[in-house]
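As the next step, I selected for study a record pairing a protein sequence with its backbone structure tokens, which the following lines show:
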Amino acid sequence: MKDRIEQSLASLVGLPMWVARRAADMEMFQFGDRQLTRNRRGEPAEVGQYALHVQCTWRLLDARGIIAASQDCFYPAGDPDNKPPDFEWDKAVNRRDERMAAFFATCGNAFPVVQRVEADRLGSLRVVMSGEVTLEVFPDNSLEEEHWRFFRPASDEKHLVVTGRGLDFH
């Protein structure tokens, strides 16, 4: 599995990661040239040449520490220690949304560029980028559910999908 993942994701080397968006608790990272397409509702959407959709534990870090991580979505933006009792992470701007937006805003047009991709036999992934930025993805259960997928948006090509049971193509 390690070799297959590294081979498939090698196409990211030299490409920038220019945005990440959230749908529920899934983070969607976009790499490479921007492309216009339509989303599932038929609305115009901007996607990358490649997308990495992550539903398991992940973190984005740099030399100073963790920029944002998957569990940050369960805390409010601003002061995470002052969580209102009625806080709804999936309806309000949460800490993850806030920190990811701030990260990409500070990039200006100098987005981090992928230098290498490392994987292990269990489907964990490290995307090492310029500026000491690294995206780490680590499956955290043994279930058949999807942990992450890599694909070319607006393409009919199969998706590389990692589950708790191994690698699949859809």
About this structure: The helical segments are 2-9, 95-107. The chain has a mean pLDDT of 94. The radius of gyration is 16 Å. DSSP finds two helices and 13 strands in the chain.
